[in-house]
Write a structure and sequence with these properties.
alpha+beta
Length: about 80
């Protein structure tokens, strides 16, 4: 992980953002690839969440994420 993060900025932007999502959310690759375009949600206090299909539980789920990750996802969108 240290080596990957050391060179994260040298990866193509899309790959770097996918790596950040996997690291912070603990997604499987399939979960990452099945994210909807409008996967971000923000509550009325300003906290960010990501909606995804939890393949292990076979249901839609929501996970809190950092402001930095929300910004990276918005840049990709």
């Amino acid at each position: 992980m240290f080596q990957l993060n050391k060179y994260l900025e040298e990866l193509p932007p899309a790959i770097m953002r996918m790596t950040l999502v996997i690291q912070e959310c603990g997604f499987r690759v399939g979960e990452l690839l099945s994210l909807k375009f409008d996967c971000l949600r923000q509550d009325n206090t300003g906290d960010w969440f990501i909606e995804y299909y939890n393949s292990k539980m076979k249901k839609e789920d929501v996970k809190p994420i950092s402001f930095e990750l929300a910004k990276a996802i918005q840049e990709q969108q």
